[in-house]
Specification:
Blueprint (H helix, E strand, L loop, with lengths): L2 E10 L3 E4 H7 L4 H8 L3 E4 L6 H16 L8 E5 L10 H9 L6 E4 L5 H14 L5 E9 L9 H4 L4 E11 L4 E8 L7 E2 L3 E2 L7 E2 L5 E2 L1 H22 L9 E4 L4 H10 L11 H4 L6 H11 L8 E8 L3 E8 L1
Parallel strand pairs: 4-5, 4-6, 13-14
Antiparallel strand pairs: 1-7, 2-3, 6-7, 8-15, 9-12, 10-11, 14-15
Bound molecules: oxa(dethia)-CoA.
Amino acid sequence: MIHSRIASTGSYLPERIMTNAELEKLVDTSDEWIVARTGIRERHIAADNETSLDLGEKAALAAMERGGYSAEDIDLIVVATCTPEKVFPSTACLLQERLGIHGSPAFDVQAACAGFIYAFGTAYSFIRSGMATRALVVGTETMSRVIDWQDRGTCVIFADGAGAVILEASDEPGVLSTHLHAEGSYKDLLQVPGWVRADYNEGIDPAPHMLMKGSEVFKVAVRELGGSVEEALTANNKQRSDVDWLIPHQANIRIIDAVAKRLQLPDERVIKTIERHGNTSAASVPLALDEACRDGRIQRGQLILLEAFGGGFAWGSALAIY
Ligand code: UT7
């Protein structure tokens, strides 16, 4: 059996930091409400000329540099994004060109905030089946481009950033499993309903920004993520106490805490970046993973549990020995 291991990680956050105080000037909200209901104090917002491709490139280069890899070492690129550079070519193909990689498969995965887990699961399956030996998996988002800055239910939450993981074939077990799920009947609870139409002058019709029924999303997220982490443990015959680190999607501090409680994991074993990053959609899990790997909290040999939930609804988990 071909195993796969997380060989390296990298991430990038745009320079501009937007505080809750700035949002107080845009919509009827308060720092107190945002902190209490979401756990977010500040977030990074891309510059006008910065795109998901730019962010993803910087995260990918950081992961390649940290692992000592060059373009020739990568034979698969999977990019998770719901804010792509263009309708096509895929952001993955554009990234391939930027990185000087030639001939490898390169494609985007669109599973909204669960995108990175889907991309990670896809790369894991490619490696397991012998179709790739070293995959670059990137989650990159410019959610600021699809936010309605008059909608206080979403503009206080979502943000920009990118994270990358290099997953490579290994003789020793690394990734133990990924579990992916979706339920399209929830399509209306979290969406960007706009679509591209070349015969429309504006090009996009009707609403190119995000619409979210927040409290309904919240309830399903807590329920399904709880089930998803239990599923990962059961499938691998692991106990809750075996998990060294939970690296959750940074959607809302209350969702993170609810899943950690179900796992009976103490706070100090949960990686939380939401206070400084906000919800960066498909970038949130690799951003949190990279931060905790680089600062030495996550050590080689430890058991890590990744999970995410987002529009679709789509959700999933990955269990791995780092
Ligand atoms: O990442 C992908 C998946 N997304 C998520 O997982 C997000 C899940 N949802 C959430 O995180 C939360 O539902 C929110 C943070 C979006 C909202 O928190 P909530 O505790 O569910 O609030 P709510 O929507 O039930 O609204 C409670 C009150 C309402 O006022 P009334 O009707 O009680 O007077 C809202 O209008 O809070 C109000 N409200 C706000 N007040 C101040 C909503 N947004 C704001 C705001 N500032 N930004």
